[in-house]
Amino acid sequence: MLRRQALRESAARTYARSLPIVPVRARGLTIEGADGRRYLDCLSGAGTLALGHNHPVVLEAIRGVLDSGAPLHVLDLATPVKDAFTTELFENLPAELAADARVQFCGPAGTDAVEAALKLVRAATGRTGLLTFTGAYHGMTAGALEASGGAGDVRVTRLPYPQDHRCPFGIGGAEGARLGARWTETLLDDPKGGVPLPSAMIVEPVQGEGGVHPAPDAWLRRMREITAARGIPLIADEVQTGVGRTGAFWGVDHAGVVPDVMVLSKAIGGSLPLAVIVYRAELDVWAPGAHAGTFRGNQLAMAAGTATLAYVRRNGLAERAAALGERMLTALRGLGAEQPCVGDVRGRGLMLGVELVDPDTGAAAPALASAVRQECLDRGLIVELGGRHSSVVRLLPPLTLTDEQAAAVLDRLADSIPAAAR
Ligand code: PMP
């Protein structure tokens, strides 16, 4: 039955499609398959499950709405559920933005929020160009694809995203980042051959799909200065980095940067589909009806989101992610030092990546990464691949990960890498 249905689904790539698991139950870090096998899920619905699967506070919030008789769907009418979500969200925003911001419910996915952000800055600035970065990922709808690295559209100007491993300038470190910022200024200020003043710059504080590259804080601050000085709105795509994932509540918090627009989805819906943009009130040029959409503001998702945001805040899960992430990074680096096929280990908070390479040439090793993923699965560990060459094993465990679970994840990964390399 399941098999036949699976065959009818499009062959388009989706996360985890190749995993031969039929999940029937899940709790916290663990997924149980129809065959009774249990897996540690370090994919977490592509980073959506900040509190893991079926966390009691999330289930309670969803049940609360269901049992209350509240409407489940009312387009974008104001409801108590929405009021609670918006209040909790604003309590957690960077204070400077929260003081004078608007929220637009988009829906229901991250890519929808990206579209809304791109549309907003075009309307607000009257300009169409967009600055984006090598390796970026913003979603799969037309505008978001344009903004993503590799889409190959001509309307965007792609700037080098700073990274140590495979730095676009071959330098890495602070110097590579400095050159990237300088190049941005050169392009913007060159009256001949530069780029026309764009509608925005869109940036991920840590590139996730691009292979887990945290932006250096100083570079992000420089990008903020460069865009502010020229009246270019800065859009932070926090779809994956938001809600404690990187070890701060928002990815931009590490650098103390306040963007003009924040794009939020994944964890803010507490495992249900929800997407919003939050932006400075001065950008709010939209007339009523300018950004419509049927499925904005799902009541269940808002309730689950409110519970998640509040739980992360009250329990200091961002700080916990920072501390545990640091320890996991150290352990992974130790593992990398023993394994010549590990080319690089990087991450921030509980957004971690291990890049597999050919030990002789240093070239990205996607087939080996794929084999590692399979070895992990055989050991009951779910991981996903990312990066330009699909050579980066990515870990996105829930922020509720315990020390014992972290050790189990690391053990299984440590066994899988040499097994795949053999
Ligand atoms: N932006 C970023 C940074 C993402 O990581 C993703 C999804 N991986 C998206 C946008 C798109 O979100 P969705 O898949 O919900 O459309």
Automatic annotation (TrEMBL):
<dbReference type="InterPro" id="IPR004637">
    <property type="entry name" value="Dat"/>
</dbReference>
<comment type="function">
    <text>Catalyzes reversively the conversion of L-aspartate beta-semialdehyde (ASA) to L-2,4-diaminobutyrate (DABA) by transamination with L-glutamate.</text>
</comment>
<comment type="pathway">
    <text>Amine and polyamine biosynthesis; ectoine biosynthesis; L-ectoine from L-aspartate 4-semialdehyde: step 1/3.</text>
</comment>
<dbReference type="InterPro" id="IPR015421">
    <property type="entry name" value="PyrdxlP-dep_Trfase_major"/>
</dbReference>
<dbReference type="InterPro" id="IPR015422">
    <property type="entry name" value="PyrdxlP-dep_Trfase_small"/>
</dbReference>
<keyword id="KW-0808">Transferase</keyword>
<keyword id="KW-0032">Aminotransferase</keyword>
<dbReference type="Pfam" id="PF00202">
    <property type="entry name" value="Aminotran_3"/>
</dbReference>
<comment type="similarity">
    <text>Belongs to the class-III pyridoxal-phosphate-dependent aminotransferase family.</text>
</comment>
<protein>
    <recommendedName>
        <fullName>Diaminobutyrate--2-oxoglutarate transaminase</fullName>
        <ecNumber>2.6.1.76</ecNumber>
    </recommendedName>
</protein>
<dbReference type="InterPro" id="IPR005814">
    <property type="entry name" value="Aminotrans_3"/>
</dbReference>
<dbReference type="InterPro" id="IPR015424">
    <property type="entry name" value="PyrdxlP-dep_Trfase"/>
</dbReference>
<keyword id="KW-0663">Pyridoxal phosphate</keyword>
<dbReference type="InterPro" id="IPR049704">
    <property type="entry name" value="Aminotrans_3_PPA_site"/>
</dbReference>
